[in-house]
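Aim 2 progress. For Ribosome hibernation promotion factor, the working sequence is reproduced below.
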Amino acid sequence: MVLFDRDTAKAIRITGNNIHLTESLQTYVQDKLQKVIRRFGTLVAKMDVHLTVEHNPSVPNRHKAEVVAFAGKTILRTEVRSPDMYNSIDEVEERIGRIIRKYKERKESKNKVNKKDPQIGKQAIVTPEIDEEEDETEEDQYADVYDSVDPPVPAVNEVVRRKVFPMPLQTVEEAVLCCEYVDHPWYLFRNAATGEISLVYKRNHGGYGLIEPSNPNAVDEEPL
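Predicted C-alpha cells for this construct:
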C-alpha cells in the first residue's frame, strides 16, 4: 500500500511480513516519516518501509522496522529491531533522520568545496592503496566480503524473501557513497560505465572493493 501526503506530494510505501498492517499502524508510520521528509525539503523523494515480525516467540527482538530513503541516486537505509513494533518505528525514524542529516551536511560541504575549486568536483573518490601479501590467494582476496555474510542455516533450499527495487545507473563513486549509508558492508548497483550489475564492498583492511562481470570480449582477463 502506498500512502501519499497531500501537502508534500511525497510517497511512503509500506509492506510487511508476518504482520497485519492495520490502518492505525500505517497512519503511525506515515506520521512519523512524513516529519522526516518535511524536515529535509526536496532532498528525499520517497521512502520504502518494511515491517517484519519473527515467528519464533523466543527471539527477544522480534519486531523489525526497515526504512529505505531515496535521495536522488543515493539510497539511505537503516533498520531497528526491538520487542515492540511501535518502539522499532520510533527508533528507526530517529535513525534515518540522523543518516539523512549526515548525508545532507556532507553534500552541502562538497558543494561549497566545488564552488571554490571546480576541478575538485571532477575528481573521483579514491580509496587508499592497501599493501597486501604477494602470495595472497584468490580465496583470501574475497574473504572479507564473504565473511560479512551470515552463515547459511541448514534448511530446504527455498527463497523465503524477494526484494524488488529500482536500480538506476550509478557511477562507482556514487555506489561507494551509498555504501556508507546502508547497514551492511556492500552495495549492489547498475554500473553506469558498463550497464552491468556490479557490487562494491568495504574491505576489512580499509578501502573498497569492486566486483563486476568479466568482459567476454577481453582476452587479457583471468576468470575468478
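The chain has a mean pLDDT of 76. This observation will guide construct design in the next reporting period.
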